[in-house]
Amino acid sequence: MICGFGRTGNTWGCETFGFLPDAIISSKNLTAGFFPMGAVILGPELAERLQRASEAIEEFPHGFTASGHPVGCAIALKAIDVVMNEGLSDNVKRLTPRFQAGLAEIAKRPNIGEWRGVGFMAALEAVADKATKRPFDSKLSVSERIANASTDEGLICRPLGQSIVLAPPFILTEAQMDEMFAKLNRALDRVFAEVA
């Protein structure tokens, strides 16, 4: 889950937004993407219901094909330790205001309808008309063009609908953040010159 383990400024996105979920499903963030690993973390009500059902049939029947894999568990423990105890989560909190200020500056462009995000996760929505927030014709594939132009600049971002998603690494420095925004601005200049 992209909003887990510090990306929003807290360990879990639900903490940032102030709610208690029934369950948390987590995967690639457990091992920083180095090994396939997933987890299902249940809240008290679901855990109790599963416990009652298991007691009734004297077991908890589910697949064990990859559960508790020692390599995955070792990688997950280390990845979580690094994020939580070696300053990465603190770096996200420290640089979030700078990140959001940079996004707000880019959102002043005539073809960015809005930006939204929290912590080190954000999206910039490309629009044909800022006043009405009219999107570009989908045939123009604007977000894909922006992603490709960004890649040409050496920046990886994700196209999603009419938006570009940014999720920088937790080890990002201030200088690297400035470089990220410079590259994105050059990519936006190029694409908007072609389609606007």
From TrEMBL:
Entry keyword Transferase: yes
GO biological process: biotin biosynthetic process; gamma-aminobutyric acid metabolic process
Sorted UniProt keywords: Aminotransferase, Pyridoxal phosphate, Transferase
GO molecular function, one term: adenosylmethionine-8-amino-7-oxononanoate transaminase activity
InterPro entries cross-referenced by the UniProt entry: Aminotrans_3, PyrdxlP-dep_Trfase, PyrdxlP-dep_Trfase_major, PyrdxlP-dep_Trfase_small
PANTHER family: ADENOSYLMETHIONINE-8-AMINO-7-OXONONANOATE AMINOTRANSFERASE (PTHR42684)
Protein name: Adenosylmethionine-8-amino-7-oxononanoate aminotransferase
Organism (species): Rubellimicrobium thermophilum DSM 16684
